[in-house]
Request: fold
Amino acid sequence: MWEYSDKVKDHFLNPRNVGEVVNPDGEALVGSLACGDALKLTFKLDENHRIKEARFKTFGCASAIAAASGLTEMIKGMTIEEAAKVTNQDIADYLGGLPQEKLHCSVMGREALEKAIANYQGIPTAAAEEKIICECFGVTEKEIERVVRENQLTTVEEVTNYTKAGGGCGNCHEAIAEIIDRVRAEARPAARPQLSNIQKIKLIEETIDREIRPSLKQDGGDIELIDVIGNRVLVATRGACAVCQASHLTLKQFVEAKLKELVWPELTVEEVS
Amino acid sequence: MKTIYLDNNATTQVAPEVLEAMLPYFHEFYGNPSSMHAFGGQVARRLREARAQVAALIGASPEELIFTSCGTESDNTAIRSALTAYPFKRHIVTSRVEHPAIHALVACLAKEGYRLTELPVDGQGRLNMEQYARSLTPDTAIVSLMWANNETGVIFPVEEAAALAQARGILFHTDAVQAVGKIPIDMRHNLIDLLSISGHKLHGPKGIGALYVRQGTKFSPFLIGGHQEKGRRAGTENTPSIIGFGKACELAARNLEKENTTVKFLRDKLENALLARIPLSQVNGDRLNRLPNTSNISFAYVEGEAILLMLNEFGICASSGSACTSGSLQPSHVLRAMGVPFTMAHGSIRFSLSVYNTEAEIDFVIDKLPPIIARLRVLSPYWQPGAEAGGAF
Reply:
């Protein structure tokens, strides 16, 4: 059973602003039946261009209903400019947090809001031309880039929690990992001080000790630094990692990602036995 | 608030008689059945009785049973044993609707290099027996088909399937975790080689299961160590649980008739009333060939988790095949294999009854569920009063 906050439960059991605004100024439908959740958002402005009325209809789980209900409450009284700044994190915060696996519900809320605003402003949505990364859930490259950037995501699993991308057949995991790498690279300050070889090795060792080993140990695994040749970090897996079939994924998606982030962006991790 | 428990395919309450039988073996008679002293020996004697009780429920002889820790261990042991016994055979036949204990295991074996045939099912969750027969090859090491499906209750003709495998010299395993105790099973009248049972699905404790291995079947142990279970499953026996499991099987044998009368009556009453009161609802699975306690119903345009949480407000426990509850983002693999449209799959609810349910409880659910569906449909952007159930894939 999910651990929902009291506010999520309240908005699920007593949803606010259910329905559709008559003659709305902005409207949008996001999600689909196939995906398992969908949200229709409509709003109307008053004479001061503030959102006077917002209503929703949701097909989906408790948190999808609560996120939509919360969103309509949040944006009432806002100007379009203010509403446009609402992020998925704001929606999750308003609800007192959402379980990790349910963060996509808050993202769906933000997407609907954005699309409804675009609809009001008369901007056609260019979704058709965007590159789809996850075929199962129809998630585009842009959407993934955006959640990675806004929420500082570092793993494919996190992207799945936020957008569902990668939660179906799994064929797009590599593509998602590439997007994460690219966006994370942008986020890094361009000018990094050059590291001497000794500094680099020391920093790698420290990062393994502090950031990597504790996580691996939780699963009974471990890692040992064997050598550093240029930007190639040679490691050996120990404990549960040594026999785990998924350890190469751990090395690439976790160990290498951490070292790239915290030590040097060009580092690659290789396993030696 | 009173709990109305209609999730007995997930787990069951330990029967009071079972608990009573178990309790002395934690604190009073805690001896090791392998010990030489009489203090341990008396426990060994009780284990023999328990083994006979389990055997009696399925018409096996006691030596054909190996106690394990759960149904999943029984499944893993059976498949691995068959593959070890016939190392030159590299093909496995199973179905698309198996429990994860088989489904995930064979996926793992496929990665190890085994060839896999996962037989499809039709819209009612049924196998095509001709297609099954064609899938058997000289290279096939084992067939594993579940006796009854945990989500829909649909019963596979495993006895017929086992005979076809036997004729070709292929081992046959069935995951009978949901079937044992709910429908009559008699191993004297079929050719099944290996059969998995679980204690907690039939009012026994959790953490105990058994694997039936027909006499003369080549067997290779999964857990290696001590001589317990005649060297076929090492590890000190879980004595209180085995004794409880035995008692549960004895009770199940006595209640078997009730399953097909009282429980079936309540299930049918629930199902028919919900179908009549809730438009655009359907039963998933072959209604004629099903466990008597299981009903899997879909309600179009609403989502299962939301239904469950609203039922939860009334103390009603059930489960769902929707994406949000399956732990993945896709709806149940069983419903997808059956081709249930997404409009319906996301809104599926499984009710699974037991002999402990009462008619008053069923009437309560019949009363409470229709307004919940109506309420969620008002929220749903796809719901148009009077709409037809579309096939939105």
